[in-house]
Amino acid sequence: MELRYFRQRYAMTRFQYILKAKDGYSIQSPFVYDLYYNVLTARLDKECMRKNHLSGSDIHGQLLYKILDHYNAREIEDTYTWLSTDKTIVMPDGSMIGLLYTPHSDKEKEKIWEEVWRNTEVTVSVDIYHTGIIFSSKKLSKQHFLLR
User: Fold this and answer.
1) pLDDT digits 0-9 by tens, 25-36
2) Average pLDDT in the chain
3) pLDDT value at 4 more than 60
4) Using CA atoms, how far apart are residues 119 and 98, in angstroms rounded to an integer?
5) pLDDT (0 to 100) of residue 80
6) With left for phi above 0 and alpha for psi between -120 and 50, is residue 102 left, alpha or beta?
7) What is the sign of the dihedral through the CA atoms of 61, 63, 65 and 67?
8) Pairing between strand 87-90 and 143-146?
9) Lowest pLDDT segment from 10-14, 26-30, 98-102, 140-144
10) From CA 141, how far away is CA 135, in angstroms rounded?
């Protein structure tokens, strides 16, 4: 009975995600390769975390800081959310980045995530299980990645 409840509550388990997701060696896109190695897998030093009031367990805050720093972007205030994302970021060239936290926490959130990354405005979407990242840029072609 408990197992059936678990399957109904969560659309994709962490184990199912790991089986589907790819690692950095299988990335063919230069843009996503740069994102993976310079943002997602990069570590912040303790001094940087202390200066920016980030804790070791705040993965969303660290990711937001690394994206803002790497792309020299700025966050748009919470009054505007692009495509139902939790955070909206604008890059200097006018391209948009959206962050959706915990896209696999339940079936409704996973349905929202699938609608967001299938949207025609979204060119590149990256699913890293605990966060979904979407990009809208005229320079990129439509792609979806599941990364570990």
Assistant:
1) 778 888 889 988
2) 82
3) no
4) 12
5) 65
6) left
7) negative
8) unpaired
9) 10-14
10) 10
Least Cα distance to 33 among 45, 114, 41 occurs for 41
Cα separation values, 109 from 71, 79, 96, 100, 123, Å: 27, 20, 21, 9, 20
Q: 29-33, 74-78, 91-95: which has the minimum mean pLDDT? A: 74-78
Q: Which two tokens stand for residue 114?
A: 């699938």
- Which run of H or of E encompasses 107? helix 107-118
Please, how many CA atoms are within 13 Å of residue 6, restricted to the half-sphere of its CB? 5
* One-letter amino acid of 135: F
Q: Domains of the chain: which residue ranges? A: 2-146
* Helix then strand then coil, % of the chain, to nearest 5: 45, 20, 40
From residue 139, alpha-carbon distances to 16, 23, 100, 128, 135 in Å are 32, 24, 22, 22, 11
**Which residues lie across from 74 on neighbouring strands?**
90
Question: Cβ(63)–Cβ(97) under 8 Å?
Answer: no
Here the tokens at position 43 are 């570590």
Q: Show the tokens assigned to 40.
A: 């997602």
